[in-house]
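Example for tutorial group B:
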C-alpha cells in the first residue's frame, strides 16, 4: 500500500512536470500510447521475450543479449520497452525488436493491462530496474524474469533497515546476473542466493562492434600516415577547453572531434577555439580532409568505428554529470583519457587500475600525460595494450547468461 501510494504521488508529479518539460511530456505521451502500440503490433499467437531498459545506456547492455537470442532462437519475438525518452527516441526504430514502446508507470492497473496485452513468456530487466508491481505480477503468473548486469551497493534501499519490506521484490527474479562479488555478498545477506557473477555485457558488445567496424574512407584519408591522432568522443565544452589548446600548440598532432551535442552553435564554438585548419565531416571531400588538421564529426552513428583511427582517445563528460562510453575506444587498444567524474563507472575504474585509462583533473594533467604518450612510444604501446586486454579479459557475460536461462 505504501509503495502504491508513492507510485500514485509520483504519477501526479510526473504529469505536473510534463506541463513544463518537453522531455517529461514526451515520456507521459509515450506511456499513454503504449497500450495502443501493443494492441496494434503484438501478435496474440506469437511468443514474446520482453526486455526493459530505463534509458539508452541500459539498452546497450541488453542489446547483445537481444541479438544473440534472435540469432539462436528465431522462433521468439522481441518486445523492447523504455522508461526515458533518451532511450526511446534514439532506439524507437531499432530493427532488433519487433515492438518498441514506453513502459507505463508501475500502477497496479497499468501493470495488468500491459502484461495482458504483451503476454511475454519471459522478461529481462536491465541493471537498476526493480518495479515492484511489474515484478510481482510476472512472478505470480509464472513468467520468469531475470535481472541482467545489475549492481548492488550497501546504500540501496534493499539493505537499509527501512527497506525490509521492499527486499521481497528481489525474490521475484528467477535469477540475477550481477556484475561483481560485492553484489553477491550483499544479496546473500538478505537471503537472495539465485545469483551469478557475469560481469557486463557491454564488453561483449564492444568486441562485436569492433569486429564489425565500418571502413570510413574520408577518415582514413584525413589520418593519412599520421601517428599522433587523438579521437575525442562525446565531448562537451569543458573537455574541449582541455584538449583543443594542446592540439593547437602541437603541429605534429591530428584531432578528430565527435561532440556529444551536434548543433550549429556548438560546432561554431568548437571552430572558434581551433587555431589550425579544420573541416566538418558532412561538408568534406577527400581533398578537403587531406588539407585539414582537425576533422569535426557533425553527424551520429560513426564514433564507435572512428576510434580505430586514433592512437589515443579522449572520452567526454568527466567534467560534467558523468563520462560516456570508455569501452568503445578501449576495445581498439588505445589509451583512454577521461575526467574525474568517473567513480560510478566500474569499467573506468578497471581501466585506471590496469593502466589503460588515464584520469585527468585539469588541463595540466592532460598536457603532462599527452607529452609522455607522444614522446615515449613504449608507454603509448603499453597503455594501449592494457586497455585492449582489459576489454578482452572481461568479456563472456553472454555465454554465462545463456547457459543459465532456459529457452
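The residue assignment follows.
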Amino acid at each position: 500500500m505504501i509503495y502504491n501510494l508513492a507510485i500514485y504521488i509520483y504519477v501526479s508529479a510526473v504529469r505536473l512536470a510534463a506541463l513544463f518539460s518537453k522531455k517529461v511530456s514526451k515520456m507521459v505521451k509515450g506511456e499513454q500510447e503504449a497500450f495502443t502500440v501493443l494492441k496494434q503490433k503484438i501478435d496474440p499467437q506469437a511468443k514474446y521475450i520482453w526486455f526493459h531498459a530505463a534509458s539508452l545506456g541500459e539498452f546497450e547492455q541488453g542489446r547483445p543479449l537481444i541479438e544473440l537470442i534472435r540469432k539462436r532462437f528465431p522462433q521468439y519475438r522481441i518486445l523492447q520497452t523504455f522508461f526515458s525518452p533518451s532511450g526511446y527516441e534514439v532506439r524507437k526504430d531499432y530493427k532488433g525488436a519487433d515492438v518498441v514502446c514506453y513502459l507505463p508507470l508501475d500502477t497496479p492497473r497499468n501493470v495488468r493491462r500491459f502484461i495482458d496485452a504483451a503476454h511475454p513468456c519471459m522478461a529481462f530487466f536491465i541493471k537498476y530496474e526493480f518495479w515492484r508491481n511489474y515484478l510481482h505480477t510476472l512472478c505470480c503468473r509464472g513468467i520468469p524474469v531475470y535481472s541482467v548486469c545489475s549492481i548492488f551497493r550497501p546504500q540501496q534501499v534493499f539493505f537499509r533497515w527501512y527497506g525490509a519490506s521492499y527486499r521481497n521484490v528481489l525474490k521475484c527474479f528467477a535469477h540475477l546476473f550481477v556484475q561483481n562479488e560485492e553484489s553477491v555478498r550483499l544479496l546473500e545477506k538478505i537471503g537472495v542466493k539465485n545469483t551469478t557473477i557475469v560481469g557486463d555485457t557491454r564488453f561483449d558488445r564492444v568486441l562485436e562492434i569492433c569486429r564489425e567496424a565500418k571502413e570510413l574512407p574520408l577518415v582514413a584519408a584525413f589520418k593519412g600516415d599520421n601517428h599522433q591522432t587523438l579521437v575525442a568522443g562525446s565531448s562537451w565544452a569543458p573537455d574541449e577547453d582541455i584538449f583543443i589548446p594542446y592540439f593547437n600548440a602541437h603541429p605534429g598532432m591530428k584531432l578528430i572531434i565527435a561532440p556529444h551535442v551536434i548543433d550549429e552553435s556548438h560546432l561554431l564554438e568548437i571552430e572558434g577555439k581551433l587555431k589550425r585548419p579544420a573541416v566538418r565531416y558532412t561538408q568534406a571531400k577527400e581533398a578537403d580532409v587531406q588539407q585539414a588538421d582537425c576533422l569535426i564529426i557533425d553527424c551520429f552513428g560513426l564514433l564507435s568505428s572512428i576510434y580505430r583511427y586514433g592512437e589515443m582517445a579522449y572520452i567526454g563528460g568527466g567534467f560534467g554529470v558523468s563520462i560516456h562510453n570508455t569501452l568503445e575506444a578501449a576495445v581498439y587498444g588505445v589509451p583512454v583519457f577521461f575526467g574525474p567524474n568517473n567513480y560510478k563507472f566500474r569499467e573506468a575504474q578497471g581501466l585506471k587500475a590496469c593502466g589503460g585509462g588515464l584520469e585527468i583533473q585539469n588541463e595540466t594533467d592532460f598536457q603532462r600525460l599527452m607529452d609522455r604518450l607522444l614522446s615515449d612510444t613504449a608507454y603509448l604501446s603499453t597503455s594501449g595494450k592494457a586497455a585492449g586486454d582489459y576489454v578482452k579479459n572481461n568479456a563472456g557475460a553472454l555465454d554465462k547468461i545463456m547457459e543459465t536461462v532456459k529457452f
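The first strand starts at residue 48 and ends at 53. Compare this with the pattern of hydrophobic and polar residues in the output above.
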